[in-house]
Amino acid sequence: MINLNYKNADANVVGNENGLNIQQEFANYKNQIADIITNLNQRKDKPGQWLQWMNLGYNEETLWYVKEFASMVKGKFENVLVLGIGGSALGGIAVTEALLKPYWNLLSEEQREGNPRIFFLDNIDPDSINSMLSFLDLKKTIVNVITKSGSTAETMSQFMIVKNKLEQDLGEDYRSHIVATTDKKTGILRQIAEQEGYKTFVVPDDVGGRFSVFSAVGLLPFALVGIDVDQLINGIKDMDLALKNTDINENIAAQNALIHYLMDTKKGKNLSVMMPYSSRLKYVSDWYVQLWAESLGKEKNKNGDVVHAGPTPIKALGATDQHSQIQLYNEGPNDKVINFIRVKDYDTTLEIPKIFEYTGIGYLGGKTINTLINAEADSTRVALSDYNRPTITITIDKVNGYNIAQLLYMLEVQTAIAGELYNINTFNQPGVEQAKNYTYALMGRAGYEESAQALKDKMAAAV
Ligand code: PA5
Fold this sequence. Notes:
The chain is α/β, with parallel strands linked by helices. It contains 16 helices and twelve strands. The protein folds into two domains: 3-43 and 235-422, Glucose-6-phosphate isomerase like protein, domain 1 (Rossmann fold); 52-227, Rossmann fold, CATH 3.40.50.10490. The longest helix has 22 residues, at 22-43. It is globular and about 65 Å long. The structure holds 5-phosphoarabinonic acid (PA5). 5-phosphoarabinonic acid (PA5) binds next to loops.
């Protein structure tokens, strides 16, 4: 299970100027939080609310189809190649990095217990795409193209390149190497998939990209590489149950949402750092950054007032970034809430050999790296509190499917509750659309001629 420790964000520890009187605030917001949780759970089944991600733990049908397909193709492919961007990729990367053995793609087939390697192309850098396609044997690769809208330029351009190469390498059989995950009815990818006869999975209605990791978007690639998807689903079901509790004193997602909201609005701490002390969780930070940024960064609130809301998320990795960012966090502007993620038990216990005892590093010998990394997490947290910097510590027992699913789902609910506190629409992203439209215009997409002209004028003015 997951534990949330907010003591070091309390005024008792970091002082009145930088900390909150947390128990008092929980009492002040008790009713509002209860209303928010009740309301989210009431709205979640209504179309157009974008809250279907709260039901993903109960989607037995998708789970069955995903497992069925994964078992059907087991042993047929050496590689899984995922094409997608943003919410269609970040959850997949976060969970596979956390749950597969580190350096998975470099391990032998035996070490991977017969499961395929997995690659994510989540950018359109020509050099990296070219390099990947030059080493990946497409004859032994299953390609999962994921886009909810079915038209994202980055994903679809990758797909067009990969599809062409698949066809060249495989001839007519190329179709059996493509699985499309997209909207059930609409979008260009859906149309292509039907015309071409690809196997398809659905991004459910009312599940936005950044909340889609436990839909087929994530579950399919996870099952293809042998991750136990039942464990993930059990994790989110149990967490969902726990987070239905409307009492803020019992609801860790509500607690962290409120603390972040108040730190931003009352204490001017509008930066939220996510710093796991585990390399396997490094990409959980990337996923969190997108979730928090795209959900909470909004120009207007629900009443239409201009608010420019949203704390800025920052990714960090312990202990690595102690040697990069912590100087700033200790002594720079006191404008951050730092979230540590601690792992109680790592899979491995690694002893540091008792050598060089006669030198200044002799004290390390005989201890474990495990003790060292947790000692570093503790000392960094305490040092930050010495500088009156608020921190939150999330602890998980182990990095396993159940706990990772719980963690991610908890952060999703936390984001939804924070969105309600800010009174903004958590589930849209109007600020992304403008640049998307400009790109379509620059690339000559029909219907975007007006944007193309506006863009040309602006670019000329900037020069
Ligand atoms: O969270 C979101 O909604 C976005 O980040 C999308 O996932 C991203 O823009 C990709 O969109 P699509 O899945 O339609 O290709």
